[in-house]
Amino acid sequence: MSAQKDCEFLVKRARDLVSDDPCAAKAWLITARTLYPADFNIQYEMYIIERNAERTASAGRLLYDMFINFPDQPIVWREISVITAALRSDSQDKHALFLRGLFETLPGRVQCEMLLKATEQCFNTLEKAEMLLLLLKRFPESVVQHGVSLGETLLEAEASENVETPVNCFRKLFVCDVLPLIMNNMDMRLPASLMQKYMLKAAEFYIGYVTRGPAADVQIQGSQDGGSLKSPTVSRGSQRYVIDGLSEKSSVVAEPWERLLDIVAVVGARCEWQGDKGQRSYVDMLLRVKELCRYLPSLEGDTRSRCCSQVVICAALVLFRSAFIYLSSVQPALFQGVNALSSGPWILVEDFSSVYSDLESERGAGKHKKRKLADGREKTMSSDDEEGLGKGRGRHILVNKTEMPSWSETLESFRTARESWDLLHSHDGLETEFKKICASWKTDSWLWFRIFLTDTIIYQGQYRKALSSLHQMAAVQQPQPGQQSPSGQGSLEHHRALIQQASCHYALGEYRLACEKLLDVVCGLTPPTQEPTKSPEDWSRGKTKTRKGNDLRLLPCTGKAVLPFCFQLMFACFKLRTFTDSRDDLSLGHVVVLLQHDWPQGEMLFLKAVDKICQQGSFQYENFFNYVTNIDMLEEFAYLRTPEGGRIQLELLPNQGMLIKHHTVTRGITKGVKEDFRLAMERQVSRCGENLFSVLHRFCINEKIMIIQSLP
Amino acid sequence: MGDIRQSLLPRDVLSAAKELLYHLDIYICNLVQSGRQPPQVDSKTQELVEEFILHAPKDRNTPARRMSALQELQLLEIMCSCFQEQSRDTVRQLMFSALFSLQGNQADESRMVLLGKLVSMAIAVGRVPILECAASWLQRTHRVYCVRLAQVLVDDYCSLVPGSGPTLQNIHSASPRFCCQFITAVTTLYDLTTEELTPPLELLQMIVSWIQDDPRLVLINFLNTPLSGNHPISSLDVTPLGGLMRWCVKAPLAYKGDKKQALTNSSTERGREVGPLFSALHLSVLQVLMLLPNILNEKGLYGRLALLQMESLASLTSDLSRLLDQADKHAPSTDTRALPQLALDRLAQALQVSMANGALLCSREDLRAICSRLPHNNLLQLVLSGPVMYYNNIHSPAMAFSPHAAHSPIASHPTHPPLPTHPPLPTHPSSHPQYPAQPFMTGMSFPFRPSH
């Protein structure tokens, strides 16, 4: 009783003095401690004074004493948990730094003991894991004992908590913190199967992390979103990202692909993979497994299966990484952390840049026509595939290099990804293994990867497959445009799919479907106010190289680039119908209208059309004066009516045909018609300065139904 | 050596002194080399030193030769470089002894004067070897002379030349041994009995900062000296602990004394200024005491050597009771109650911590004897009666300190057995009276228990 009172008295005196004369307060406590060395409160008071004054060394010493002498005091444990919390946090505030410094003053043995005991008292899996991790990081010798069990605990927690994505707090801790400790500890002996399992867990995490979509975080307003995209959800490179359960700082994973490569290197070395131990790049990795693949058929048993898994893992990682790099250029907005402002989406389509100039291009397209005729009798996929494979070899992909500065890396990645994909499907054994990985990672649900696969199929010329994939994706994406953003991204995304579909339909000879899709797109666009200046690159390319007509192009998904492409594709659809022996004035008229675009690229074809009109002796196209404003063309048509031009009968005014029929007996009326034509021509010449894009855009919108109906 | 006198006589004072130093150096080198034990300077040589360096009158007939101030300065410079250049420690020490060991004759006066000037100069120009020799001198010499030397230095550095304090501050790093002895001497000199015997503020600040920077400084002589038990009674204490303790305990009353003598602003301000300094110094003293058990155990002296003497504590308590009486007479108002209580608190703390750490070897009964005349103070009563034995703090586990502490990497806190067992003392063989029985008398009020 009395002793307790003594102690209370001593502590109270110290407490009363501490603010005015801290030295005196400490003198009291030192005295008190010599009187009652077993009293906890005296020592705690001493500790509190030092802690509040943030004197690291003396506070550390007193904490140590308390830890040793009063190991069962709840207050000591509360204090220790505050300190370990500071160790786990990445806060830089002064007090947290002090607490961390305090911990550092303790001898290693005590640190170890403290962490272990603190871990035991933790009930939250994540906290417990973080605590144990502190221990493992500080005391590498403890990795052998606790490393794998900690890893398994985290994986179990992930499984039992039903997390939606591999990018979760448990996996992050496992992959980024625990796994390197386990892998790099030379005293650990793990079975190869376990290491491969862990590595796949790591790969799934890193890929998931890199390809994570922009978070729809309402708090962060995209105030500085530039360019044409006004959507607040469009990712800025710097948008913050937090893994649920972790702090912002620990949610950051630096250089994920490099980290993954590190793990592959360690696992490779430990599983005694074939070939060079130090795999320093993904490209090397692909080269190595390609080589390895050649020996695969000659191997048997264990060696074979080990070799198989090496090939599949390496090729799969190269595939996903290259596909990601390709997609991050082509569809940057899909990913967070990829700078979306640099460029919008790009579309892989058939190239039509030489459609106006190349007279021989029908040859390529002619094939389609023939095949299209055969299609009438229930065409199956197989012939499509056959042809696709034939076409798939060595196709060129054109891209405007100034608009896509990373063009070479993008195309190279696309190529590497396709190569890896092919490798993975070059052998039944490999394919089965790869499909297992895909199934466990649910790659089917990776939108970005489907986009890559679709582009690959297009590249291979398997347009029918590509179309069905595009339809599926459209179905998946359907609800998105509305919710994602009111204007920009969603519709752009939608356009992208339509344009790609149109391109595929065209390649399959389905011109009407192609034009349907295109006109949907064009209707949603507003024509650029300025006519684009023709890029010299396009000129030279058209002139110098004769394309075979099966090149591809990466087209920027912007109104400025899409509209010309639509005109080109529409033109390509009509071109074949027009320049055949049969007469189709409507198509010929459309062709003339469309030939205005990119004038005088299509001069040769225009002359060819004129020839045809001359041969026919007459030409009827009532929309002529609505949509033809090209002065050269107007002159040519004016000339055609003259005796020198061959007195071609032109019915270019609306309802003119009716008038002629009606008044055919009266010469005067014919004269009146002539007068109308002259007046129309004169008026038309004054329209020459009109924005051609607006004219053609209006053409597409107003004549949509007629255009579609005039195609088979 | 005696035969050189004839050659020295015709020379002027400075060159004769120079010449003698030169010969002395050679003489002592030979002495050390010959290996004679103990190496001792003969009386003839002593006489030469007194005649040609100290210029003490040889007899009444011959008038003493005198040096001009300039010549004296030159001689000091020569001596400084002489000690600086001598690389052998033994030779330096013997040389210093030959010059400055007190002989109990007339020449001692001039010896002390010259020594004061030499040490003061060595401090000014940072001559470490001289400070080391002076530290040894302070250990050997009667405290009266030590105090005189200290007085000279304090005058030189704290009173005469304002702003020269920082120079003195450096001795702490130049020669910790000298610094420690200097503190001991200064605490012996200023016993806070009168205005003159309170340390200058500058000096106090210096000492506080020295000890705060490095508490072990206080123990450095104790740590470095092989204690052979034949520590001369008349010399300074081995540590300044006792002196510092006296300062801290008496300070609240001594500085308060200023007030009544001169009710000027400066003196009250001074009181306010020194308050925190003494508080910090007192804490430092307690912290140094806490270091002792490990050191004493290492030396095998725990419980065998008392760094604090009962006699000096007795004189402290009687001083204190006198001061308290005075304070009571002169200022009976309540607002001054705090200062006597502060003094008593500090005394109680110092006694308890000293005893608990083996610096003071006595029983609580002995303490009660020397504190009997002091007025009531709660803490002092608690200390005098000692802790309650059966300590039943519900939180604390069974105390098993020693095994932990034995492995403890932080060996700062001594281990305290729950029962303060005092080693048997030669002077007070039986000193455990009725206390062990005390806790059983639960209902009884104990006279020494603090009333709180």
From TrEMBL, chain A:
<comment type="similarity">
    <text>Belongs to the Integrator subunit 10 family.</text>
</comment>
<keyword id="KW-0539">Nucleus</keyword>
<dbReference type="InterPro" id="IPR026164">
    <property type="entry name" value="Int_cplx_su10"/>
</dbReference>
<dbReference type="GO" id="GO:0032039">
    <property type="term" value="C:integrator complex"/>
</dbReference>
<dbReference type="Pfam" id="PF21045">
    <property type="entry name" value="INT10"/>
</dbReference>
<feature type="compositionally biased region" description="Basic and acidic residues">
    <location>
        <begin position="373"/>
        <end position="382"/>
    </location>
</feature>
<feature type="region of interest" description="Disordered">
    <location>
        <begin position="367"/>
        <end position="389"/>
    </location>
</feature>
<dbReference type="GO" id="GO:0016180">
    <property type="term" value="P:snRNA processing"/>
</dbReference>
<protein>
    <recommendedName>
        <fullName>Integrator complex subunit 10</fullName>
    </recommendedName>
</protein>
<comment type="subunit">
    <text>Component of the Integrator complex, composed of core subunits INTS1, INTS2, INTS3, INTS4, INTS5, INTS6, INTS7, INTS8, INTS9/RC74, INTS10, INTS11/CPSF3L, INTS12, INTS13, INTS14 and INTS15. The core complex associates with protein phosphatase 2A subunits PPP2CA and PPP2R1A, to form the Integrator-PP2A (INTAC) complex. INTS10 is part of the tail subcomplex, composed of INTS10, INTS13, INTS14 and INTS15.</text>
</comment>
From TrEMBL, chain B:
<feature type="compositionally biased region" description="Pro residues">
    <location>
        <begin position="415"/>
        <end position="427"/>
    </location>
</feature>
<dbReference type="InterPro" id="IPR027844">
    <property type="entry name" value="INTS15"/>
</dbReference>
<feature type="region of interest" description="Disordered">
    <location>
        <begin position="405"/>
        <end position="436"/>
    </location>
</feature>
<dbReference type="Pfam" id="PF14964">
    <property type="entry name" value="INTS15"/>
</dbReference>
<protein>
    <submittedName>
        <fullName>Uncharacterized protein</fullName>
    </submittedName>
</protein>
